Amino acid sequence: MKKYYLTTPIYYVNAAPHIGHAYTTMVADLIKRFKQMQGYHAVITTGSDEHGVNVERSAQRAGKSPKEFCDAIAAEFQNQWKRLGLAVDHFQRTTDPAHAKVVQDLFDRCLKNGFIYKGSYSGQYCIFDNLYVNDAKPGDPCPECGRPTETVTEENFFFKLSAFQDKLLELYEKEPLFIQPDTRRNEVLAFVKAGLNDLSITRTSIKWGIPVEGHAPHVFYVWFDALTAYKTAVENEGLWPADLHLIGKEILRFHAVFWPAFLMAAGYPLPSRIFAHGWLLFEESKMSKSRGNIVRADPIHEVMGMDALRYFLLREVVFGQDGNFSYDALIGRYNSDLANGLGNLASRTLTMINQYRKGVIPVGVENPIAETARDTIATVQQSFDRFEFSKGLETVWSLISTVDKFIVEIGRASCRERV
Ligand code: MSP
Fold first, then answer.
1. Ligand 1: which residues within 6 Å by Cβ?
2. Which numbered atom of ligand 1 lies nearest the CA of 230?
3. Which terminus in the chain has less CB density within 10 A, N or C?
């Protein structure tokens, strides 16, 4: 059986799961089922990203130790996927001791191959995005989140990212589907073409991290640690490399530039594809705690079920682009597409099978509908293979309306026969 290994981001533990996290995980679950239908052994890794100053500070505020704090939120994420019925196979925590070994191994191999050196860094750092901001002055805002950056000076281990510019460009050229969709691919191409700076991959100012063996007080930079979780999760199953990393657009650079460079430096195989989807917005703006506009999946799941939410999100938002979430639109589609469209057709068809065919589905009946249905299945498969979920669903709904018309016509014809 061919394998298909896919991942969601491993989520930060400083916020409880919301519909944005559920969106990516739900799509991963959908792709897994789709691949299983095509005969693949499909496996999903999700997890929790637990190290860094940010978590250390959140734990302090909550009056807990970082580990206690992480245990509680990691469990919330795990329970969330169970409650929503999303079939994730691995929940990789970055505080798992087995993970520390894989991170250390990646570092050792990069070091041995000459891609890591010791240096000193002084600059502006955003603790929320765990990002050094180049060319920034003290107090300048972080380009990702707008919060003020902090000045840090540290002795760090550096990764020779600058040595990978040509290799990365070659990779994007040779594998045009490596980064999708195309708009995102172009962004990455422009970023890499502009030149790459070496990257500091350890910290001495942070305690809450994976220690670098033999180099106390260095701990690994959270992204060096977090990305490696994708590999740790399947270390014993031999499923690496990943066939797909599913992510939100804001973490594309880490996945499409840093991660393949780390793997190349260590001599490990690269993932096949990175798909960066857009954001779910609420009333046209990004959901955030401070705006108080966070939507949770649980209450929606309790009222209308996960399948309805999944249908809505995949039909309403073109996968890859930003899209707006609204309760009105959700209820509208639930009523018109699911209850009236699909629900009515199913109920009419079942009634007729009972009334006219003694409850047995007739086999081998050839009519134009059977052919349209076969074409629809093929088109949906093609669309789903390209992650064009809304297009695939539109095709299904066009079949629904064709079948509706067919039923009306045969109904009319049989009336005419009778009169
Ligand atoms: N810990 C990092 C990822 C490390 S992966 C090696 C992280 N965590 S996160 O908790 O901030 O999760 C971000 C991801 O959650 C996004 O990339 C996306 O998959 C999902 N989303 C969170 N909010 C979202 C929306 N509002 N809309 C769509 N997806 C969203 O980044």
1. 9-12, 20-21, 23-24, 49, 226-227, 247-248, 250-251, 279-280, 286-287
2. 6
3. C
Question: Looking at ligand 1, which residue's alpha carbon is closest to its atom 18?
Answer: 248
Q: What is the pairing mode between strands 3-12 and 244-248?
A: parallel
- Environment class of 258 (CB within 10 Å of its CB; exposed 0-12, middle 13-18, buried 19+): buried
Distance 13 CA to ligand 1 centre (A): 11
Ligand 1 center to residue 349 CA distance, Å?
42
> Is pLDDT above 90 for 377?
yes
How much distance in Å is there from the Cα of 47 to the middle of ligand 1? 11
Instruction: Calculate how far, in angstroms, residue 8's C-alpha sits from the geometric centre of ligand 1.
Output: 9
C-alpha 121 – ligand 1 centre gap (Å): 28
Distance CA 131, CA 153 (A): 14
CA of 101 to the centre of ligand 1 (A): 25
Atom of ligand 1 lying closest to residue 15 CA: 10
Give the number of residues written for the chain: 419
Order of strands, edge to edge, in the sheet holding 274-277?
90-93, 41-49, 3-12, 244-248, 274-277, 179-180
Residue nearest to atom 17 of ligand 1 (CA): 248
Per-residue pLDDT tens for 4-54? 999 999 999 988 899 999 999 999 999 999 999 999 999 999 999 999 988
Contacts 24+ apart (CB under 8 A), 80-86: 80/17, 80/21, 80/22, 80/297, 80/298, 81/25, 81/46, 83/298, 83/301, 84/22, 84/25, 84/26, 84/297, 84/298, 84/301, 84/306, 85/306, 86/22, 86/25, 86/26, 86/28, 86/29, 86/306
Residue 415 pLDDT > 80: no
Global model pTM greater than 0.85: yes
Note the pLDDT of residue 385: 96
